[in-house]
């Protein structure tokens, strides 16, 4: 004959009722990232000289650098957060943030562009009147 007692279940219910829930109400309540979490790549264009080292060191070709156009682009969908670009950048332009990148809804490449010097203002040219 199968016999069981309600006592263990009652204890479990009471224990759970008096504790905080084991899960969070994500995304309303988010865990603070651990200090060494590899979350996402951050880039600062100010000191970048477009040497392309980071692009060559990236094992997944997530970074594309154009010297002449002065652009630096990253495909977060390809980045595996290996840290290679950060360790090899001579100017310290790349860093690792510990907050995770928001979910990618589409394939997008984030491009940074260093503004070129503005073109010189055109000067009026004296034109001789027609004879
Ligand atoms: S290695 Fe650094 S300085 Fe060189 S292109 Fe990459 S981010 Fe810019
Ligand atoms: S962390 Fe690694 S995979 Fe991501 S961009 Fe840098 S070198 Fe490429």
Automatic annotation (TrEMBL):
It comes from Caldichromatium japonicum. Gene3D superfamilies: 3.30.70.3270. InterPro entries: 4Fe4S_Fe-S-bd (IPR017896), 4Fe4S_Fe_S_CS (IPR017900), NADH_quinone_OxRdtase_chainI (IPR010226). The lineage of its organism: Bacteria, Pseudomonadati, Pseudomonadota, Gammaproteobacteria, Chromatiales. GO terms for molecular function: 4 iron, 4 sulfur cluster binding; metal ion binding; oxidoreductase activity, acting on NAD(P)H; quinone binding. It comes from the Bacteria. GO terms for cellular component: membrane. Keywords: 4Fe-4S, Cell membrane, Iron, Iron-sulfur, Membrane, Metal-binding, NAD, Quinone, Repeat, Translocase, Ubiquinone. PROSITE patterns: 4FE4S_FER_1, 4FE4S_FER_2. This is 4Fe-4S ferredoxin. Residues 39-68, 70-99 form the 4Fe-4S ferredoxin-type domain. The keyword Membrane applies.
